[in-house]
Write a structure and sequence with these properties.
alpha+beta, seven-stranded antiparallel β-sheet, 28% strand, binds adenosine-5'-diphosphate, binds magnesium ion
């Protein structure tokens, strides 16, 4: 994340470090499924490989680290407050729903929950806010806020039940009149979604019915449908509009801190910004209303997509948001994947986890609870570790 460029490494020393570090990963469980092994996803404990990692830590100035950590509890509270304003969520996403079936299905569940005036007494959030350091302005800017299925969390042990296979829940689950969720005869206290944030997670109606069933139950959902919607890119863009943060936060100091980390964000109703983007597409990122990697549109593709969508007319543009492209300074890095070390210029993205637990009016937990540093070669537009773009990194805090 910093300007500091480590000196080129001696290849023998690098090779030794790779071997030692890969062994360390295996010993400490820093492993992921190996795509090259067909039995990896089906036979437990088989087909594991060290998680891709960076040989040397990314440098980050302590003041940015502190800034990102301080933001975590504020974002936790903001998510909770926005989630309580059902009409805001429905209105802000109303155009998106017309052109995006997935968002529309989520909003439908949300509307049903609003209609029964369901109160969530216990609200649990495990979020991750991602940032990059913009080199031009030397400011820490938010990439996105993940409120569902944030990967590589630091708090995995909090969860009791993992709703990975919603079809099973639909077949074996029921909600008792008092709201208790039973699955396979067992009471479920907490539903943690490690999936459910992409259309692929709902191959049939069974998964949608299961999602609704869980939402209607009194089990604690992490996230609830409202928390999930607050984490959409469209809401990120709505919150960046003038005076919107003021609706949800009272403290001017907190509002300033949050606003300071917002990059430029626009909806595509604005003719002027479309014109600028078509002229200089390299300064922007076009994001569809999707989570989970590989969806963003850059450069010439961005220009072409905008021109095409404009020609098509209608509301197609409403399915996207436009974001200022952030340019972190690239540093020399050694990225290790599958035991092989690749040297190259790389940029980093810092994720800060936040945990929030509320019982009625009482905030029980509201804290920063871990971090995730990901580093990728600077020529890659995307950033996921599991998706094969980035590697896990460690942090070296510097005084500057
Ligand atoms: P998702 O993780 O849901 O696919 P993100 O908004 O996190 O969506 O975008 C994916 C990746 O694209 C990020 O991890 C980051 O590497 C890159 N990216 C996203 N927004 C920007 C931006 N404004 N400037 C530069 N890179 C970006
Ligand atoms: Mg992301």
């Amino acid at each position: 994340m910093s300007a500091a460029v480590p000196p080129a490494m001696d290849p023998t020393a690098a090779g030794e470090m790779v071997r030692e570090d890969a062994a360390w990963c295996a010993l400490h469980g820093l492993v992921v499924g190996d795509r090259a092994d067909p039995r990896s996803a089906t036979v437990p404990g088989v087909g594991l490989v060290h998680a891709p990692f960076s040989l040397l830590p990314a440098h980050l100035s302590e003041s940015f680290w502190r800034q990102a950590c301080e933001l975590a509890p504020i974002f936790n509270e903001l998510v909770d407050r926005v989630s309580m304003d059902g009409n805001f969520l429905q209105d802000a996403l109303s155009k998106t729903r017309q052109v995006d079936d997935f968002t529309s299905r989520l909003l439908e569940i949300h509307r049903k929950i609003m209609e029964i005036n369901k109160e969530e007494n216990i609200r649990l959030g495990l979020h991750r806010s991602d940032y990059m350091l913009d080199s031009e302005t030397s400011s820490l800017l938010q990439i996105e806020l993940n409120t569902i299925s944030a990967s590589f969390p630091g708090l995995g042990s909090l969860v009791i039940f993992t709703a990975r296979r919603e079809k099973y829940v639909e077949a074996e689950g029921q909600v008792l009149p008092d709201g208790t969720l039973l699955v396979g005869g067992q009471k479920v206290a907490v539903v943690y979604y490690r999936a459910g944030n992409t259309p692929n997670d709902y191959p049939s109606e069974a998964e949608w019915s299961a999602r609704l069933m869980m939402e209607q139950s009194s089990a604690v959902k992490c996230p609830s449908i409202s928390y999930h919607l607050v984490g959409t890119k469209k809401i990120q863009q709505e919150l960046a509009k003038p005076s919107v943060l003021e609706r949800f936060l009272e403290s001017k100091e907190e509002i300033d801190k949050v606003r300071k980390c917002f990059a430029g964000l626009w909806s595509l109703e604005d003719e002027e910004i479309i014109k600028t983007t078509v002229e200089k597409p390299e300064l922007f990122v076009l994001k569809p209303q999707r989570e989970g990697r590989g969806n963003n549109i850059y450069g010439l593709d961005l220009r072409e997509t905008l021109v095409r969508l404009q020609k098509e007319g209608g509301d197609a543009l409403a399915a996207y948001i436009l974001m200022q492209r952030i340019f972190p300074k690239a540093s020399l890095a050694y990225l290790v994947r599958g035991g092989v070390c690749h040297e190259g210029l790389a940029i980093s993205e810092l994720g800060i986890y936040g945990a929030y637990l509320r019982y009625k009016d009482k905030v029980v937990i509201n804290e920063q609870c871990g971090y995730l540093m990901r580093t990728k070669v600077s020529s890659s537009d995307e950033g996921g570790v599991a998706a094969g773009f980035a590697v896990l990194d460690s942090l070296y805090l510097t005084g500057k």
